[in-house]
Specification:
By secondary structure, the protein is mainly α. It has one helix at residues 2-105. Belongs to the V-ATPase G subunit family.
Length: 120
């Protein structure tokens, strides 16, 4: 009977060792699958990033001409406005100088309205 129990225990130990091997293999398999999934995800991310960068470059190239055209239009409009301001300045500078000189040279002395009359 001791031999039978010894053999049963031996069988259980072997089964336990085999189960431990299976668990270890499952862990290694899971770890490997996680590594594979991460590397595949990184590859997909890199591919997606490259595709989006290419799409952006294409968009940028197609709209770059629009930017330069807009800059030319803005420069032209600015030049027109500057010319209009310069023309207005040239037309009115004589009048402005005359008004300024009249204000400085032609002084009409008067008492301030808040000054009290002396002796009153």
């Amino acid at each position: 009977m001791a031999a039978q129990q010894s053999q049963g225990i031996q069988t259980l130990l072997e089964a336990e060792k085999e189960a431990a091997k299976i668990v270890q293999q499952a862990r290694q398999y899971r770890t490997q699958k996680l590594k594979d999934a991460r590397s595949e995800a990184a590859k997909e991310i890199e591919d997606y990033k490259k595709a989006k960068e290419a799409e952006f470059k294409s968009f940028e190239a197609s709209h770059a001409g629009t930017t330069s055209n807009a800059q030319v239009a803005v420069d032209k409009e600015t030049e027109q406005k500057l010319q209009a301001i310069t023309d207005t300045y040239e037309q009115h500078k004589g009048q402005v100088v005359k008004k300024l000189l009249d204000r400085v040279v032609l002084v009409k002395p008067e008492l301030h309205r808040n000054l009290k009359k002396v002796g009153a």
